[in-house]
Amino acid sequence: MANLSQLKRRTRADYPYILEYRTRWTDNDMYHHMNNSIYNFLYDSVINTYLIEHCGLNPQSSPQYGMVVHSHNDYFSSISFPSRAELALRVNRIGNSSVTYEIALFEHGKEAVKSVGEFVQVFVDRDTARPNPKGMDPKMRQGLERILVSDRQSKL
């Protein structure tokens, strides 16, 4: 993952996939900003939306699914209800059975990134909950490659 100064300079153009989310009253904590746990909920949601829409994932029946093995988030400024959030997604790395996502949260109508997170998923077989020795399903890999950002691009 990039260093903090690089992450703070992220723009929507750094991400090939964007999903809008309307914040809810219940997303706020007692300090009137979105609770930290909601960020992980949103990151998981944008990833799974992309996997369902573009990679052939059927959560109930696909032979493989992604298990989160690492997550991390850097917060830069808050967002709160009734704001509209824009969740921006890219893939920074694809391994044999793993993928590293970078997710940014922007507030609709504002340029500055609010937070940037990282999720690492390992795709495992539904029956064994272990990675398949043959690796990730080819359709899944093909869909993820569409939002893969090259090393050169991610260092910008």
Entry summary:
By secondary structure, this protein is of the alpha+beta class. The chain is 23% helix and 33% strand.
Task: Bin the strand percentage.
Answer: 25-35%
Helix content: 10-25%
Strand order of the largest sheet: 1-3-4-5-2
| CATH topology group | Thiol Ester Dehydrase, Chain A
Main sheet attributes: strand count, strand direction, barrel closure: 5 strands, antiparallel
The helix/strand order is HEHEEEEHH
pLDDT < 50 stretches: 152-156
Number of domains: 1
CATH class bucket: Alpha Beta
How many runs of DSSP E, i.e. beta strands? 5
Structural summary, described in words:
Mean pLDDT is 93; it is low at 152-156. This protein has helices at residues 4-8, 36-54, 138-145, 151-154, and strands at residues 17-22, 64-75, 84-94, 98-107, 113-125. The chain is 23% helix and 33% strand. The relative contact order is 0.23. It contains four helices and five strands, in the order H-E-H-E-E-E-E-H-H. The protein has a single domain, classed as Roll (Thiol Ester Dehydrase, Chain A), CATH 3.10.129. A five-stranded antiparallel β-sheet has the order 1-3-4-5-2. The chain is of the alpha+beta class and 156 residues long. Keywords: Hydrolase. InterPro entries: 4-hydroxybenzoyl-CoA_TE, HotDog_dom_sf. Belongs to the 4-hydroxybenzoyl-CoA thioesterase family. GO terms for molecular function: fatty acyl-CoA hydrolase activity.
